[in-house]
Fold:
Amino acid sequence: MNATAVRAERPLGNARRRLSAALWRRPWLRAVALLLPPLGWMIVFYLAALAVLFVSAFWSIDSFTGKLTHTWTWANFHTIFSDPTYRQIAWRTIWMASAVTLTDAIVAFPFAYFMARIAGPRQRTLLFVLVLLPLWSSYLARIYAWRLILNHDGALNWTLGKLGLPTQGWAFTNTAMWIVFSYIWLPFMILPIYAALERIPDSYIEASRDLGARNWTTFRRVIVPLALPGIVAGSIFTFSLTLGDYITPSLVGNVDFIGNVIYRNVLGLTNNLPFAAAYATIPLLVMGLYLVVAKRLGAFDAL
Amino acid sequence: METRAARISLSIWTLAVVLFLWLPLVLICVYAFNSSNIQSWPIAGFTTKWFSSAWHDQDARDALVLSLKAAGLATVVAIALGTAAAAAVSRFRFFGRDAITFLLVLPIALPGVVTGIALNSFFGNNPVHHFNPGLLTIVIGHATFCIVIVYNNVVARLRRTQTSLTEASMDLGADGWQTFRFVTLPVVSTALVAGALLAFALSFDEVIVTTFTAGAQNTLPIWILGNLRLGQQLPQVNVVVFFVIVMTVIPVAIAARLTRDTGILRRR
Structure:
């Protein structure tokens, strides 16, 4: 670098140094400067959005003009609780979310156990990647794949036919939704359980055996309780994701979920945003309750 | 401690789960080469003709361009904001630190439809500014749930690096910027790239929130969804789906290699 360039750069460099020194002397200023942009973004675009959502649940739609009326009313909530259709849809969604969560926990646990406590390091890495890639690969593609598999002339019936077994007619039923939900959210259950199991020190298991516990007792009294936070952490995802999904029901099922009602009221023909907002408070409250319980069971440390 | 029988049954179970996870993905990729436009199994024959027909589909192309733009911009925002939040949380002790993590996770911990409708009503009904649905609203929505992806990766890496590194750099006379440029950045760079790749993959594939923020615009997933609903252009859909799987799997595979130390590849 020649002298002119150095001289030209100096004032700028000095200013930078002064700023840097000022920031170094005042750590709180650095913290504020770092936090302001992300916090500002989340508050403006997310918390404010949730607030608008809550408020709009108490608005209504003028039935003649179809315009939003900004007066406070409990009418939307009244409809939700008095109309059996909406109650039924809410129960169905919660019931499916529970069934999927339970299924995933049962399928995931032995897999995670093998991964954490039996597989060697290389095998473990391989299994990790094999779980990870489906988790991240296209959500729509995976639903669509099952639609093709469960179709009357799909791969499942073809296989069953080859094996000489009776064919299935699960396409567009609750069974199809249960299978597809369990499939797409399974990796979300495997990873936290694996993490929890991997953290159990071998010495705990040795201690349990030294104290005279049989394998089964050790499993039941030591391993399962220590894995529980992982299971609960996984269940947050499987439960929440099922609760908020409306695409799976519309592609492989034939009945409405909470999400379908919301979707139709926001973007579909019904066009009643306040009602959709009111209905959206159901999954929100259910999830809020779920998160409180999960926190008590120590799931947040296992996330 | 496991008996032999237990080990064998666990291995079989593991193998079955791997097949369960992967067979549908393999199958959908095979369908991209189906010579018939009837989607039954086994496929009628092998062809690559739908690849060129999908490539020349103008709607699909427009959707691809929009998806790339949205994912690219959302990733840039997520990198900037996620890294800043990660640096603040891992370097400073202050009141409400846990609340920040919680706030960042919220958009993906809450059901997608809630995030979607919240953004939708906010864009249209807030008293300050009316946002017309389009690229901007899509990017805002995607960035909001991508920040946590970058944040998680960078925080995990920063937790494993000692503060003595930056202190040494300052003691040796480097200013804040130089320390960041020559010490902190090289340490977090792979975690940052991994976070960015994951954020890109997540945004590129997102559909639940996007339907609420895109208005009449089509991203690639929305284009797929529309055609699936109507049952039209299925051969082209198969090809695009194949492409989307590749587009999401490759960044994730690279990210997995980059973060082998922290192993922080949980999506949520």
